[in-house]
Write a structure and sequence with these properties.
Helix content: 40-55%
Strand content: 5-15%
Structural class: alpha+beta
Shape: elongated
Number of helices: 17
CATH class of one domain: Alpha Beta
CATH architecture of one domain: 3-Layer(aba) Sandwich
Distance between the termini: 71 Å
Largest sheet: 4 strands, antiparallel
Strand order of the largest sheet: 1-2-7-4
CATH topology of one domain: NADH Oxidase
Radius of gyration: 23 Å
Number of strands: 9
Length: 368
């Protein structure tokens, strides 16, 4: 088995993995208990993915009865993911994990690991960004990361800037030991969260997380919009603040992750799906990406783009009319007031009228 393990490390590192560990495939009982606690407390919100079936996500034998081990791999998406640089008018920010398809190196590395195991005569299956496994739990048990207070899996060299995946196998490989490490007294991620979604005990209230809402269907609560900033997709606030990742973050100097929101709003549905194919878009409906862009423009939009935002007051789903109204209330100016007042006279939907009234009040209170 030692020869196979050596070949696994060689194949993984040669394919771009920066970490590899092996753990048993026993159920992750403590993780299941914690997931149930968060669901009962309402902190998981409407999350699906692993929360759709926590029993399966924490017990790999429910998917692969023959699994004896998990070979866990990690890649880092820095420095290639770059840095969004300073804020720019009418431009939104994309979290670093989504500046391109950074899962491709992980996919390639895990397939290489699977190939080694299969060539040795063992069954093996790749699990990457897969609802059948809580990948962070496997990474912690396999000794390539520890649980951070941000709920992220942290590594000593790369901090939170990794993507994780596993290969389930029947091969009874020797396991690696978990890290004897934690965040200690560090709480840098907690005050960094713009919505206060993290607490001192390492619990994340997903219903207050910007990344959660960027991938949820429907209306974004006003309290979340107020803290949204210029984000289009994802939020790196707690990752940016994490000390173990600071050195690696400092190497990400190339500018990436800025999107022209005006251009985005003018793309067709098919163009949006193609350009942002690596994003998870709720219900595969690009209206949700336009919604995110409108919220971001409420912070970074200039007066020149008021006509474009105002165009969303007159047509399309109520979700977009509401978020366009909110954005105009934040941008302000006489053109925004005129567009909002005109929309109030024509709008029949009560929820949208409420947003329009709130937007007009916001403009007047701000003296715009």
């Amino acid at each position: 088995m030692d020869d196979i393990v050596a070949r696994l490390h060689e194949a993984g590192s040669g394919s771009g993995l920066v970490g590899l560990g092996i753990c048993d495939a026993e159920p992750f009982a403590e993780v299941r208990t914690e997931m149930d606690r968060r669901a009962a407390g309402g902190w998981s919100g409407l999350l699906r993915f692993t929360y759709a079936d926590p029993q399966t996500a924490t017990d790999i034998s429910r998917s692969f009865l023959w699994a004896a081990r998990l070979v866990v791999g990690a890649v880092t998406y820095l420095p290639v993911a770059g840095n969004p640089g300073p804020a720019r008018e009418n431009h939104g920010r994309v979290a670093r994990f989504a500046t391109s398809d950074h899962y491709e190196p992980l996919r390639r590395g895990l397939r290489s690991v699977r190939g080694v195991l299969q060539s040795a005569g063992y069954r093996a299956e790749v699990l990457m960004d897969d609802s059948r496994l809580v990948d962070r739990a496997a990474a912690v048990r396999a000794g390539i990361a520890w649980w951070g207070k941000s709920t992220m899996a942290l590594s000593p060299r790369y901090g939170p800037w990794t993507l994780l995946g596993s290969v389930a196998t029947e091969a009874e490989l020797p396991t690696t030991l978990p890290m004897q490490r934690d965040c200690g007294t560090c709480v840098a991620c907690i005050p960094a969260c713009p919505t206060g979604a993290l607490d001192q005990e390492g619990t994340l209230d997903a219903t207050r997380c910007i990344s959660y809402w960027a991938q949820m269907p429907g209306f974004i609560p006003r309290s979340i919009r107020e803290a949204w900033g210029d984000r289009l997709y994802g939020c790196d606030a707690c990752l940016d603040a994490c000390p173990p990742g600071q050195r690696w973050l400092g190497l990400a100097t190339g500018e990436a992750g800025r999107v022209d929101l005006v251009e985005l709003l003018e793309l067709t549905d098919d163009e949006l799906r193609e350009r942002f194919s690596h994003f998870y878009i709720p219900r595969n409906d690009p209206a949700h990406l336009r919604r995110n862009a409108l919220v971001a423009l409420g912070t970074c939009g200039s007066s020149e783009i008021v006509p474009i935002v105002a165009g969303y007051l007159r047509a399309g789903p109520a979700m977009l009319r509401s978020h366009a109204a909110w954005a105009l209330g934040r941008i302000g100016g006489s053109a925004a007031v005129e567009a909002l007042a005109s929309a109030v006279r024509e709008e029949a939907d009560a929820a949208v009228r409420s947003e329009l009234d709130g937007a007009l009040a916001s403009v007047h209170e701000g003296g715009n």
